[in-house]
Amino acid sequence: METILLVQFMGSLYGLLAIVFGAFGAHALKKSFTEEQLRSFETGVKYQMYHALLLIVLGFNFGFNTPLESYIAYCFIVGTFLFSFSIYGLTLSASKERKWRFLGPITPVGGLILVAGWGMLLYSFIGKLI
């Protein structure tokens, strides 16, 4: 039961923040970002929203009775944080000409964790088909 609430909470939080960051990027950052930085920032927002919606769907459809279901959710929670928020940090710091290079390797790690979550989700569906 606790995992369900965590997943629903994180999905809601990520969704709320995606809207706030998207509006912030479209209005406040448009003047200080290059086109490339704006596209990168928007990529972070899009992936965050996609996974926020996915977490909400999983929170209402999974019982989290198996470790696999929990691993899937945790991959999406952690992967989204690492992927999207490292992009935000990279673009914001680059716009101030103080690029936080240590965040560069974090983005693909977050992406790999998201891929692992999607792979486990696919595996869970295949397991039910066979």
Automatic annotation (TrEMBL):
Keywords: Membrane, Transmembrane, Transmembrane helix
Superkingdom of origin: Bacteria
Topology term for the membrane: Multi-pass membrane protein
Keyword presence, Membrane: yes
Cellular compartments annotated: Membrane
One cellular component term from this protein's GO annotations in UniProt: plasma membrane
TM annotation in the entry: 6-26, 47-65, 71-90, 102-126
Family, as annotated: Belongs to the UPF0382 family.
The protein's name: DUF423 domain-containing protein
Species whose genome carries this gene: Ulvibacterium marinum
